[in-house]
Amino acid sequence: MIQPIRRCCVRNIRGVTFALVMSVALSLLFLEGKPRADKINFDDHERGRGDSFLIYRPFSTTKKVDRAVRHVAFLKVHKTGSSTAQNIFLRFGWNHNLTFVLPPAKNPFGYPNIISLREGPTSSNVLPPPAGKHHEILCNHVIYNRTSFRTYLPKNTFYVGILREPYECFKSTLNYFRPGYIFLKIKSPAPGSDYLTDPLKYEPESAISSITNNRMAVEFGCSENLVKSKNRDQIMKFIKQTEQDFGLVIITEMFEESILLLKRYLNWSIKDALYLNKNIAHRKNVSALVGPYDRELYKQWATIDYALYDHFYKRLRQQIRKEGNDFDEELLHFAEIRRITSEFCSVSGKYKDDKLAVKESKWDEKFELAHTDCLLLQKQEMHFVKEIRVRQYGSEDI
Ligand SMILES: *[C@@H]1O[C@H](CO)[C@@H](O)[C@H](O)[C@H]1NC(C)=O
Ligand SMILES: *[C@@H]1O[C@H](CO)[C@@H](O)[C@H](O)[C@H]1NC(C)=O
Ligand SMILES: *[C@@H]1O[C@H](CO)[C@@H](O)[C@H](O)[C@H]1NC(C)=O
Ligand SMILES: *[C@@H]1O[C@H](CO)[C@@H](O)[C@H](O)[C@H]1NC(C)=O
């Protein structure tokens, strides 16, 4: 910390004086305050032969026993950043040998990672668990259905959802899916804009066949009737039920905070909670799809999605407040470890035997990150699900 100041200022005498004063002041600071156990000491950063080590000072808290919650359902909602979140659940299940709820490899949706786009889990869209096992974790696309989720997952399952600011989700949906009922029917420079002037003119008959009719709510199990009626009281009832069922709803705009809360609620380790950003579209040209006044139109149309989003946005902030000041401290720590992870994983392929050692913290035991961990963090959903299928059933075709 002090060195660079000295080096940069050697050329002028005032600089030297300044640097000396500063370094004396800083060393006094360090001498006076006893080293605090909860502060990262950057001087402890060591590099050994062939290994990179990041050493943090040990903390004096007692070690946690492994009380990690293992039964989890993650509702993977389209175009919300859910692939990034899903990797956390895939990895947790993989590392703990959990039994996943999986669809048959060949299914009506044409993707081995989709349980259903129209309904909850059923005996025809879900494979039975391997002999002697029971389902423990679900994190593939499916519609939430309170009853049917509970027939496949244990009673003590923790439910996690995800929501994104609805208009951002809509733009991303247009950009990614280019739904035929909009793009084939409307021949104009900004089809999304034309669509929003009268959505019902273009929407499919049933909401479940649509990707733009309050789709987030629909994936959370909102009924056809409610999507049609948009009855206020019924919407509130739907939201209350969702709140009861889902212990945590990740808000994409507060992703890192959400994941830290998830880690705390599920008693997972910081290593379990790590993630690298996935599936982020780099070539966005939504200017071609919507106009500058369309956000308001969309708000009038997607009333249930907005009600849901606003409610769970506020609940997440409340939940975070309940965690106390310590949450922000851990958030900084988490962000730091995520940066270090991302830097390590960006080169770990070149130094396959290197390990990143992270010392214990106030919140976690020490852990090591190896190249194999990076491979899991980087693994695309499709490949991951295939490997889980092979491990679970001995075949990628079942
Ligand atoms: C998971 O299973 C593998 C092989 O079947 C085994 O080596 C490993 O120890 C298991 N891991 C856990 C956490 O049970
Ligand atoms: C939810 O699942 C139950 C049990 O599988 C089924 O009877 C019911 O029709 C489903 N509800 C909807 C709205 O699909
Ligand atoms: C997590 O662990 C704490 C104590 O370590 C415990 O009080 C809490 O019930 C656990 N949470 C869950 C959901 O099991
Ligand atoms: C985005 O779309 C607009 C309208 O079609 C077009 O004029 C513009 O060149 C596009 N920009 C990019 C970066 O493709």
- Outline type: globular
Q: Report the helical percentage.
A: 40-55%
Percentage beta strand: 5-15%
As a whole number of angstroms, the C-alpha radius of gyration is: 25 Å
Low-confidence stretches: 1-63
Organism: Mya arenaria (Soft-shell clam)
Membrane topology: Single-pass type II membrane protein
Keywords: Glycoprotein, Golgi apparatus, Membrane, Signal-anchor, Transferase, Transmembrane, Transmembrane helix
Main location: Golgi
Kindly describe this structure.
The structure is a single chain. With 398 residues, the chain is of the alpha/beta class. 47% of the residues lie in helices and 7% in strands. It has a four-stranded mixed β-sheet. α1 (3-9) packs antiparallel against α2 and α11 (232-245) packs parallel to α15 (303-322). The radius of gyration is 25 Å and the shape is globular. The termini are far apart. Mean pLDDT is 85; it is low at 1-63. One 2-acetamido-2-deoxy-beta-D-glucopyranose is lined by residues 119-120, 145, 147-148. Keywords: Glycoprotein, Golgi apparatus, Membrane, Signal-anchor, Transferase, Transmembrane, Transmembrane helix.
